[in-house]
Amino acid sequence: xxxxxxxxxxxxxxxxVDDAQWRAAYDQVAAGLAEYQRDAMVAYAEARLS
Length: 50
Prior knowledge:
Blueprint: H1 6-18, H2 20-29, H3 33-48
Helix pairs in contact: 1-2, 1-3
């Protein structure tokens, strides 16, 4: 199984905030979810990925 490195995983999370379509999709579920998802991905990457 392929595991992304920390930098790639963080960049993906940031893309959910920066890209208007991704942000809208996440924020349609709950306001602020895109940022929450990004922050969770950063925390996971720093704790579990290299």
